[in-house]
Amino acid sequence: QVQLVESGGGLVQAGGSLRLSCAASGRTNSVYAMAWFRHPPGKEREVVIGITWSGGSTHYADSVKGRFTISRDNAKNTVYLQMNSLKPEDTAVYSCALGFSRYPVVPFPTNDRWYGYWGQGTQVTVSS
Fold first, then answer.
1. What is the pLDDT of residues 37-47, one digit of tens each?
2. What angle do CA 60, 65, 71 make, to 5 degrees?
3. By the 8 A CB rule, do 72 and 55 touch?
4. How many whole angstroms from its chain centre is CA 107?
5. Is 121 exposed, middle or buried (0-12, 13-18, 19+ CB in 10 A)?
6. How far apart are the C-alpha atoms of 7 and 9, rounded to whole Å?
7. 98-112 tens-digit pLDDT
8. What is the rounded CA–CA span in Å between residue 65 and residue 72?
9. Is the per-residue pLDDT at 28 higher than 90?
10. Is the CB of residue 32 less than 8 Å from the CB of residue 105?
11. What is the 3-state secondary structure (H, E, C) of the chain?
């Protein structure tokens, strides 16, 4: 079993920044990738950004390129999402997700059904 605990959400004005953290615990060996998804009000859940545990591959949604970055600290089993230049349309519940694979997955997995473990979600609200 794997547990994911997110932190760092909140309310911020447009143009501001937030950093989300996702700490994984439990059976984390053979983790292949972690990703952040968001669920805006009234819309479908979408992948925002992701990274392989080796750090060799990343994925960025077009809407966040140049504004969001992802990083990981393997020693702490933690992934960070740095969000800069936030916009009101970034408002959503952000959830981290983790998936296992023994083999490389190409292209980077962006389908939420690939991920077997999810955090509880954290609200990010960007005011205009």
1. 999 999 999 99
2. 60
3. yes
4. 17
5. middle
6. 6
7. 999 988 898 999 999
8. 18
9. no
10. yes
11. CEEEEEECCEEEECCCCEEEEEEEEECCCCEEEEEEEEECCCCCCEEEEEEECCCCCEEECHHHCCCEEEEEEHHHCEEEEEECCCCHHHCEEEEEEEEECCCCCCCCCCCHHHCCEECCCEEEEEEC
CA distance 101 to 108: 12
**φ and ψ at residue 54, rounded to 5 degrees:** -75, -15
Query: Could you tell me if residue 29 is left (phi over 0), alpha (psi between -120 and 50 degrees) or otherwise beta?
Result: beta
Contact in structure between 34 and 97 (CB atoms under 8 Å): yes
**Cβ atoms 74, 108 nearer than 8 A:** no
Over the stretch 51-100, which tens digit does the pLDDT of each residue have? 998 878 899 999 999 999 999 998 899 999 999 999 999 999 999 999 99
Amino acid at 93: V
Whole-angstrom CA distances from 67 to 13, 101, 120, 127 are 15, 29, 24, 17
